[in-house]
Amino acid sequence: MLNQTAGQLLQDNPLVQLIQAQNFVGWIYSIDYDRALVMTNDLWKAEALGVPHNCFLIAATFDPSRFNETHEDDREVIVLRVVGSCKLPQDDDLVRTKIDHFQQQEDIFQVPSASDTVRRDFDDITRSQMQFGGLECRVLGTFFVRGDALCLGSDLESFSTATRLRVYRPRASALETIVNHIDPARREAALAEARALGIENPVAPLRVGTVRYTSTDRLHRGGQAEMVPVFIQPSDFLARRTAVLGMTRTGKSNMVKQTVSVVKRVADQSGVNIGQLIYDINGEYANANQQDRGSIADIYPDDTVRYRMLQTEGFLELQNNFYVQVNEGFGLIQRDLRERGRGSTVDYVTAFMNMSLDEPDAELGEGERHRWQRRQAAYFCLLFKAGYEPPRNLRVQFSANERVRNAVNAAAGEDLGNPGTGLPIAVAVRWFEAAREANQQNSLPGSSAGSRWIDDTLQNLLDMLVQSGRNGNFISGWRIITDGARFHSPRRAREVGGEIYEHLQAGRIVILDLSVGDPTIRSQISKEIASHVFNASMAVFVRGEQPPNILVYIEEAHNLIGKGMDLTETWPRLAKEGAKYRIGLVYATQEVSSVHPNILANTENWFVTHLNNDREIRELAHFYDFGDFSRSLLRAQDVGFARVKMLSGPFVVPVQIDRFDPEAARAQTAG
Asked: What is the pTM of this model?
């Protein structure tokens, strides 16, 4: 009974469980802190189902069946990755032997002689020698046991050149332990971070795919037993930066959908609201297509809100109503003029760009408030003249004393009504045109003695309205703002950025379908919404409150957080500082070298598929141990074949990402 107990304890030891004697592949004959050279044999490799490039190997000195007799210094397992081959000292002699043999061949195929049933190529000793070869491996870390926990150090503490290290290719459960290992200290830190985000109950790791070493996977993934699952820690995504890198049609969108699904499950299981904002460049998340068998909106219909730049059933409009969201609309017009180089061309444009439409504080008095009302009313008339469709039944209201009204009616030749009770927008245009004409004849008096009813700002707006300067010269006037009408929707009742932020606070998935509409408008509106989300969360944080958990997804990220951008701009700032305000970012691109280096340097999670040129590979090789996969990333174009580095994971793991299954996601949501 005592022996059985000791045997059971031996089998339960996590280091012993990593060693699979049937998968022995050789011995280490040279090792240092970074590299190990392994002598292997064709037979041993065949029995272990091959040793693919980039596969994991483990090395240990102890006999797993006699672990209790192992010295304390040897109770560890070294983790290696195969990065290439290496020459053994006798390789040159064996190559000469092979060449001599091939030069003496008389036929392509081996043909038995009359006296032999089988003709031998080489003698047994030579053939045995030829089966040996060398593997070059990178040292990834060291497994050891502390207390009852399996720990992994990311380096080699010490090594002995005289030590006899046996090497094995881990498979099945041993490989699963390696690729899914989370260090106990990191696990505790992740739990603490989750609690800080409001997630009290830990969410179980979620499967993302299976281990895959090479494009050719005939042997190492030849059966169900070899499909070793890879799991991710859901908390790794929250308030973190995640890069999804690779060429078009290599599985980036599939990975983004997996991430959306993972985060949704985290929110549902933990009871914590996690808003997700998706910038959908191609419309594939907002709309179903044959290839994907369902969009995100189809899978989570009750928790998804879709926006579009065109009026479409099932979508909210993305544009603001410039007559309702006055400052937001005016800001867009100002930026549009600035980007088109119109910001400082002539005096009236400069004055228009520099004016303020902010409502004055009450303590400034009624006079200041009346001036603001007149200014805003004239601005509405300018919008109307420039083609900005007004909301139905819009009435423009502002104060005008009796002397001003009489002068305006006289100039118009008719009674245009009292603006204090509101005027239809078309009538308001005529009213202001007449007011300008009357003011040219005699300055219209303000309410207080000596004041003018038309101040300099209002005068500039009226000049633009009638396209005439103060000296009577023609000016473009309202025509300079006609391009901004693309950003306007008369049907929206409130500011779109604030509305989206409220959806995110409630834990909804917000999809901005940017597949239709003018690219310039899409870019500008996208930036406005990102800026609103960032500033709103920062304001909550500054007040000493907890901002909501938000995850933002962007594609073609090199266009938004490009290499030459200033870090104070909206997108780089969101990417760099957003984590402080509980804003996570998932960005997808095929141009690694074009993304701002500061953002790359602060990215915690990486999913990398095929890249098609050395320049991108070299840029990627600067991060973690992606340099080990340079050849594989350049060659393998298999869809979903990714190299994954997660915040909680100690090293890069090659993974075949599971295809996103809408039906499974629906079932999990229903459950």
From this structure: 0.80
Residues in the chain, overall count: 671
Pair 515, 588 in one domain: yes
Calpha distance 333→318 (Å, rounded): 16
Count of alpha carbons within 13 angstroms of residue 12, beta-carbon side = 8
Q: Label residue 5 by pLDDT band (50, 70, 90).
A: very low
The residue-averaged pLDDT of 34-40 equals 95
Q: Are residues 451 and 508 in the same domain?
A: no
Q: Are residues 462 and 509 in the same domain?
A: no
- Amino acid of residue 365: G
User: Which among 469, 487, 505 is the end of a domain?
Assistant: 487
Which of 202 and 307 is assigned the larger pLDDT?
307
Q: 290-294, 574-578, 602-606: which range is least confident on average?
A: 290-294
377, with CB counted inside 10 A (0-12, 13-18, 19+), is buried
| Strand partners for 41 | 132
| 508 occurs within a structural domain | yes
If we measure between CA atoms, which residue out of 588, 589, 598 comes closest to residue 563?
A: 598
Range of the domain at 574: 206-214+226-319+492-670
Q: How many folded domains does the chain comprise?
A: 3
DSSP string, 452-488: BSS-HHHHHHHHHHHTB-TTS-B--GGGGGGGGGGGB
Q: What is the mean pLDDT of residues 177-184?
A: 92
Report residue 362 as tokens. 């009450």
DSSP annotation of 511 reads E
